[in-house]
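Q: what sequence does this backbone want?
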């Protein structure tokens, strides 16, 4: 694995983060080799060269230790926004795992987003963090069909393995749920797909399913996505161009209906699906803070 120099890794404190209520962000790796066809981090605006080539930030653990010690406010650290913290190199290098130890030693909470079942390796350290601070794990699930999953997220654990990871984390008392996004118009935006994911989430002990019934597309990311559509989804690129042109937000034509069936099913099964409720629930009993979040 290659290394790059980083001056800083943990961001400044943010009080009211609308995205799962995290107060800090942390990315130990730059780039991601999971190959998701819709990955937003490929967009020109982030200017990440050779995005598929994973690089680790040099001395990342020392930097994280020093930065956490200097923070005046405790809070939840988020990881997994611009690269998956459980890429294949993590198995050998254990940088995310060791960063979790540092987070625990310094009394912070953690929010993890991943598509890899390698996260279950760290269940014991997550349990230790949970003793003093909030912990939330989000596994992305976009389709119930493992074969379709291999086409849209080709280099990472398939859906069935991700559900097993949710089951393992939940059974160990870790607050875990599903990021149901992106739902790609004309590919996985069916009622059957949504209902089956919510039901399986419940079966595996997930506490929430948080959806986006569409995908966002920007320069460069869109080119990569369209090439993948040409390769595996005959005629679908033309449908995107007809319906959305070059718009940023491409919502499923069924978005309103799918949200309705998701919310009905979640209510029936007692699963959370609104950001405000999820944040309040996983932080319950930890920080005595005012939470101000959007409610959709
Ligand atoms: S796992 Fe996340 S960062 Fe990696 S390619 Fe997929 S969407 Fe992009």
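A:
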């Amino acid at each position: 694995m290659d290394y790059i120099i980083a001056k800083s890794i943990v961001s400044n404190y943010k009080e009211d983060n609308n995205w799962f209520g995290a107060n800090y962000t942390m990315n130990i790796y730059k780039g991601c080799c999971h190959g998701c066809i819709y990955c937003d981090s490929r967009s020109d605006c982030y200017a990440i060269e050779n995005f598929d080539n994973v690089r680790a930030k040099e001395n990342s653990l020392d930097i994280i230790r020093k930065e956490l010690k200097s923070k005046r406010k405790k809070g939840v650290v988020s990881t997994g926004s611009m690269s998956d913290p459980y890429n294949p190199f993590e198995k050998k290098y254990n940088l995310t795992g060791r960063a979790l130890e540092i987070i625990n030693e310094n009394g912070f909470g953690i929010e993890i987003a991943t598509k890899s079942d390698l996260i279950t390796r760290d269940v014991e350290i997550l349990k230790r963090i949970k003793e003093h601070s909030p912990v939330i794990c989000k596994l992305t699930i976009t389709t119930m069909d493992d074969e379709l999953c291999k086409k849209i997220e080709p280099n990472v654990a398939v859906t069935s393995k991700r559900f097993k990871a949710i089951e393992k984390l939940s059974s160990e008392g870790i607050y875990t749920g599903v990021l149901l996004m992106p739902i790609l118009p004309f590919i996985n935006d069916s009622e059957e797909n949504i209902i089956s994911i919510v039901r399986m989430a419940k079966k595996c002990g997930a506490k929430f399913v948080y959806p986006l019934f569409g995908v966002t597309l920007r320069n460069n990311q869109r080119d990569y996505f369209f090439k993948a559509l040409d390769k595996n989804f005959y005629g679908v690129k033309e449908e995107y161009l007809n319906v959305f042109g070059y718009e940023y937000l491409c919502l499923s034509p069924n978005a309103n209906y799918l949200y309705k069936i998701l919310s009905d099913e979640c209510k029936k099964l007692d699963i959370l699906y609104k950001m405000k409720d999820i944040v309040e629930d996983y932080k319950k009993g930890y920080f005595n803070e005012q939470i101000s979040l959007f409610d959709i």
